[in-house]
Amino acid sequence: RCVEAFYIYFHAGRVEEPYVSITKKRQMPKDGYSEEIEKEVGQAEGKLCTHRSAFSRASVIQAFLGSAPQLTLQLYICVLQQEVTAARSVFMVLSLLSIVYGALRCNILAIRIKYDDYDVRVKPAAYLCIFMWRSFEIATRVTVLVLFSSVLQIWIFLVVLVNFLGFCFYPWILFWLSKSPFPENIEKELSRVGTTIVLCLLTFLYAGINMFCWSAVQVELSDPDLISKSQNWYRMTVYYIVRLMENAFLLLMWYIYKTDIYLYVCAPLLVLQLLISYCMGIFFMLVFYQFCHPCKKLFSSSISEALLSCFKLLCLICQHHKSTMLRGKVAVKSPENTDEARSSSKTIDSQNGNIQQSVSSNA
């Protein structure tokens, strides 16, 4: 692909192409209106776009199935040996940059797929916000996993297995609940078994991405394009809340069971720094979706409105839970109150009877 892409690029324009295709793209709405623009795309440009899309997908696969395990392993070795060599630090920085670049390409790819009808132009501020967002999020996640695995080597397999299988089977569960027919239009040459293998590999990559960060491309097997094109703020909010709680729990376990290799490390300060770093990643994510997203004008609701609605929903759930608990307490106390009332009424009746007997005897 690389050789063909360079060959097409350097030979473009020298020979007249036999045919061109016309594409229609809509501009971002201005003052409530959006214009449709037609553009002629030659055969060479179409092939270069195909290669660029393939390179983007390959960078995502290489980042999360290659660089992410490599970074985790190198950091784990540094923690156990209690030293960071120059060569290993260079490899870790390169691996981290590779993962961040793959996550950035995943974000841009998701935007272009979701808004394929529009002419999407990503500004440098958006690239900067995505880079900072993914850097803080991925670096914190890898560090938390390494710290936890250094003191609880067996339990880390359970954590990884639960995360991986949960995200791997989640698209299949949604597909089963939707009762949609099995997708048959992925490739014409693929059989039903081949299509199943492709879908399993897709969910495998989706689970690998979600192990380290939020996947901007949400797999939806019931959709013809296999990707959800709706902006689900609730799913993103739940993911980051659960992930923050999980990171805090893993750090707490590390703090409780830390060994002598962390004797010269200020554990509370390290825990605080990691939690703040993850919150910084969430902050840059909010800035990106609120101010720097290239298609923010097409959102039905902004990220701030979505967060407010999520918090209101959580408050309603908490209030409903408290009200049910109060009703349960009242229901538990009510039989006791009725028994006390019955006993008091019996004592009053007995006292009245004694008074009547004393009056009659006096008479």
> What is the distance, rounded to the nearest whole angstrom, between the alpha carbons of the first and last residues?
120 Å
Structural class label: mainly alpha
> Using DSSP, what is the number of strands?
2
Radius of gyration: 31 Å
The helix content, as a percent range, equals over 70%
- H/E series: HEEHHHHHHHH
- Overall mean pLDDT stands at 81
Shape: globular
Instruction: Count every helix, treating DSSP H or I runs of 4 or more residues as helices.
Output: 9
Strand order of the largest sheet: 1-2
The poorly predicted ranges are 355-363
* Percentage beta strand: under 5%
**Largest sheet report:** 2 strands, antiparallel
Task: Please tell me about this protein's structure.
There is one protein chain. Helix content is about 70%, strand content about 5%. It has a two-stranded antiparallel sheet. The chain is mainly α and about 375 residues long. The protein has helices at about 1-10, 45-80, 85-115, 125-150, 155-180, 190-210, 235-255, 265-290, 305-360, and strands at about 20-25, 35-40. It has 9 helices and 2 strands; from the N terminus they run H-E-E-H-H-H-H-H-H-H-H. It is globular and about 75 Å long. InterPro entries: XK-rel, XK-related_adapter. It is found in: Membrane. Its main location: membrane. It is a multi-pass membrane protein.
Topology:
Layout (H helix, E strand, L loop, with lengths): L1 H10 L8 E7 L9 E7 H39 L4 H29 L9 H28 L3 H24 L13 H21 L20 H25 L9 H26 L10 H60 L1
Antiparallel strand pairs: 1-2
